[in-house]
Specification:
Length: 842
RNA sequence: GCGGGUGUGGCGGAAUGGUAGACGCCGGGGACUUAAAAUCCCCUGAGCUUUGCUCGUGUGGGUUCGAGUCCCACCACCCGCACCA
């Protein structure tokens, strides 16, 4: 192999990509006898261009997929497109293009970008959720769910833009106004489709326990999201003669209730016949619907004049309408205990309501007043109930049980488990989504489409210049005959939430029959996904919905698997510093390619002016701190880009992009190439130390890849590279070079193939088995022992591995440095950790 | 507001409760070269009275022979919050 030829990614990358494609190297064979490994990364939304975050995500999955293949697995590593969504409709409105054309163009472009990175993907299984051969099956599954009783319709609120006459997503509501029109957004009730995810609340919660290979944080987040709580539901008798059911998780504090509050939507609130009440309810309805907005908003209330009778004290408590009470949780009404709930405390303070203490550190402090907000809602562990008649002196837990017992005995209510999880609203009043396969008939009501009429495809002839959902005004599409009575009927014009599309795509990857959503036998072969990789932003919604959908299918007997993703990994974002300067009072941002970066300053290439280097933050278009994968592949080649994605930062943490970093990676690619080029198959002689290093590295890199610790694997490879470079020619060194090629092959596949071929090795390195490790070479026979005195390192000594405690102690005490430190003091204790350290205590 | 996470040199980070800073980047010095690029070698946490000593893992406490790691309290920043994907 000639050493003066430089590795040229521009020619090598496409050459090897073609070779893999022609050999069908990464095609998954479901009939293979090998153990199966399904490696999946969250599929991208085709926004137009691959984002560097995708590159990081798919590179990680790719390394694992290639490693799994090398270790004897039949690997399924597919790719597809989460292709429905709002941006396509926005593009249609802004640029006058069709959402379908825009989306398909984007897919084509992004697919080409992915191919340039040399990912080991089985493109024969590619799918796009916007195609009828995908969403038609989704419609069938939706009807199955309906027939299984898991789909229903109910009224639900949406953000309504009165100017654009359209429903807005939460992200389209900015400070309570429509993002395009600027009009004050209203809340409006629509009849919408829901999936009964709450039927599975208990299962989804318990299932988390089996997901040992999910990050604890994600499991915890889902647990909190599902939010199982045990409490008490009971009714107050109201002064108007009605009963008001309330739910509380703190029945032990019932004697601390000083008022009652209902949500603005609550029937009690709605029934108040006064101008002021209606105005107040309207006030509550303004602004966004998100939890964050509701809970950070100033606490507001309206005294209804109604009172509620306390079931034990008989006191008349005022009933307020309050903007912080949620209609969706519990009964939409609460007993408010300002002494022991932060929100109630704020409210009571504002409206001058009493704040009684019913929990105290001990009985002696029962009279202690609240000295401020800090105490409200504080941790009550170890505390006792006070000022609460028959509950006085009980622990919080005992008091809960006692109150529930008494309330049940008196027939006022019952202990009840309540979930924070709400049913999944899947209706979207938009064109670019899966049409919900139902028909509204005047005579028969809501009727599912006949399965043989699927797919119900989206009409192509739509325009987006008129506000609102084009499906609603598309007469030929909308008007159909009722599948039941044959009479006049209309199609449902809502489409499905795109989270539905991503709730089963992993099943469709496993098998793609034309006549059904999936083949149960094929699904059984591949599922669950062995390793799923994606962003932490999906920790709750997508991952919970996919788990639910899988369980619902299992519940209906369509599949066996209950949890779709055996292991989950959530990767960090790619970040970049920002460049900006003030121009005419405004902050103007500049893109990295407009900047020349020096050691501690950055200059604008255009005019040489200095710009401010801002914090390292998530790449975003508005801050212009983005880098384009195509550009960097052009400059450095796919392998350097892939190597950068794996280096330095642990994969779950953010990775700061830097020009210097990618250049370092690029240099390493060429450095390896020089080393590989120097490979001499005929070299003789043994180099035991190098053999040991090589085998240790193989074992460590394998371990690191399996744990997705790519940054650590990278560091090991650097170390081995340095060691091989320094070693004199020998058979061991030649073997080490061949091994190194294989170690980097999952990460830098193009370079590895080029080197593999250059060394005259058979076949593709992508098909080669992972190098074997000789366990005998993993053990060192000498170890370095740290000697501490007073907990600080004083000396190190070399000892044979497994040396006796007494020997180590003697060696440590013999050290001159140690003796100087001890300085004649009395030795009280010597701690010896074999093969590790000796600690002398004086 | 609620829930979750993160915090170690100039920077990214490494470290089963056992030698803090592996590995990479930046920077400094040197070799090679007419010169440059590339490459190679050495140095690179801070301070000091420099054979060595002291300090040092966001802050303050604690447990331990020994704490970046475990416990308690706090601070800062980041992410999610149900119609963004």
């Amino acid at each position: 192999m000639s050493s003066d030829t430089r590795f040229d990614p521009a020619s090598a990358d496409p050459r090897w990509q073609k070779a893999w494609e022609e050999a069908q190297t990464f095609r998954a064979d479901s009939d293979s006898p090998k153990p199966k490994s399904y490696v999946l990364e969250m599929f991208p939304y085709p926004s137009g261009r691959i984002h560097i975050g995708h590159v990081r995500n798919y590179t990680m999955g790719d390394v694992l997929a290639r490693y799994k293949k090398a270790t004897g697995h039949e690997v399924l590593h597919p790719m597809g497109w989460d292709a429905f969504g709002m941006p396509a409709e926005n593009a249609a409105m802004e640029k006058g293009v069709h959402p379908g054309g825009w989306t398909r163009n984007n897919i084509e472009h992004m697919k080409a970008q992915l191919k340039r990175l040399g990912f080991a993907l089985d493109w024969s299984r590619e799918l796009a959720t916007c195609e009828p051969d995908y969403y038609g099956h989704e419609q069938a599954l939706f009807i199955d769910l309906y027939e299984a009783g898991l789909v229903y319709r109910k009224e639900s609120e949406v953000n309504w833009d009165p100017v654009d006459m359209t429903v807005l997503a939460n992200e389209q509501v900015i400070d309570g106004k429509g993002w395009r029109s600027g009009a004050e957004v209203e809340k409006r009730k629509l009849n919408q489709w829901f999936l009964k995810i709450t039927d599975f609340a208990e299962e989804l919660l318990e299932g988390l326990g089996s997901l040992e290979n999910w990050p604890d944080k994600v499991r915890l987040m889902q647990e909190n999201w599902i939010g199982k709580s045990k409490g008490l539901q009971f009714s107050f008798d109201l002064s108007n003669g009605e009963k008001l059911p309330v739910y509380t998780t703190r029945p032990d504090t019932i004697f601390g209730a000083s008022f009652v509050a209902v949500a603005a939507d609550h029937p009690v609130a709605q029934a108040i016949d006064s101008e002021e009440a209606r105005d107040f309810i309207a006030l509550c309805k303004r602004g966004g619907t998100t939890a964050a907005e509701l809970e950070t908003a100033e606490k507001l209330g309206f005294d209804t004049g109604i009172t509620a009778k306390h079931p034990f004290t008989g006191a008349d408590l005022p009933v307020y309408i309050a903007n912080f009470v949620l209609m969706d949780y519990g009964t939409g009404a609460i007993m408010a205990v300002p002494g022991h709930d932060q929100r109630d405390f704020e409210f009571a303070t504002k409206y001058g309501l009493p704040i009684p203490r019913v929990v105290a550190p001990n009985l002696d402090e029962a009279g202690k007043p609240f000295d401020g907000e800090a105490e409200a809602g504080a941790n009550d562990s170890g505390a006792v109930i006070v000022n609460s008649e028959f509950l006085d002196g009980m622990s919080v837990e005992d008091a809960k049980r006692e109150i529930i017992r008494r309330i049940e005995k008196q027939g006022l209510g019952t202990g009840k488990t309540v979930w924070r999880l709400r049913d999944w609203g899947v209706s979207r009043q938009r064109y670019w989504g899966t049409p919900i396969p139902f028909i509204h008939c005047e005579a028969c009501g809501v009727v599912p489409a006949r399965k043989d009429s699927l797919p119900i495809t989206l009409p192509e002839d739509v325009d987006f210049q008129t506000p609102g959902n084009p499906l609603v005004r598309h007469d030929t599409w909308k008007h159909v005959d009722c599948p039941k009575c044959g009479g006049k009927a209309e199609r449902e014009t809502d489409t499905l939430d795109t989270f539905v599309d991503s709730s089963w795509y992993f099943l469709r990857f496993a098998s793609q029959p034309a006549d059904k959503p999936f083949d149960a036998e094929e699904v059984a072969k591949w599922l669950p996904v062995e390793q799923y990789i994606g962003g932490i932003e999906h920790a709750i919604l997508h991952l919970l919905y996919a788990r639910f959908w899988t369980r619902a299918l299992a519940h209906m007997g369509q599949i066996e698997v209950k949890e779709p993703f055996a292991s989950l990994f959530t990767q960090g974002m790619v970040t970049h510093e920002t460049y900006s300067r003030k121009e005419g009072g405004k902050t103007v941002y500049y893109a990295p390619d407009e900047i020349s970066r020096e050691a501690d300053r950055a200059l604008l290439s255009a005019d040489g002016g200095e710009v401010e280097i801002g914090r390292v933050i998530k790449m975003s278009k508005s801050k212009k701190n983005v880098v384009d994968p195509d550009t960097i592949i052009d400059s450095y080649g796919a392998d350097a880009v892939r190597w950068f994605m794996l280096s330095d930062s642990p994969p779950e943490r953010d990775l700061p992009w830097s020009e210097a970093g990618i250049e370092g990676c690029s240099r390493f690619v060429y450095r390896l190439w020089r080393l590989f080029s120097a490979h001499e198959g005929s070299a003789q002689g043994e180099d035991k130390a190098l053999d040991r290093k090589t085998h240790q590295t193989v074992a460590a890199v394998a371990e690191d890849i399996e744990a997705l610790g790519f940054n650590k694997a990278v560091a090991r490879i650097y170390e081995l590279t340095g060691a091989v470079e320094k070693a004199a020619p020998s058979a061991s060194r030649s073997a080490a070079i061949r091994t190194l090629v294989q170690l980097v092959a999952p990460m830098m596949p193009h370079l590895a193939e080029e080197a593999w071929a250059g060394m005259g090795m058979e076949g593709l390195v992508a098909d080669a088995p992972w190098p074997e490790v000789d366990p005998a070479l993993l053990v060192e026979d000498e170890v370095t022992i740290a000697v501490q005195h007073k907990g600080k390192l004083r000396d190190t000594l070399t000892a044979p591995k497994g040396a006796a405690r007494e020997d180590l102690e003697a060696m440590a005490l013999a050290s001159e440095k140690v003796q100087r430190s001890i300085d004649g003091a009395e030795i009280r204790k010597v701690i010896v950790v074999p093969d590790r350290l000796v600690n002398i205590v004086t």
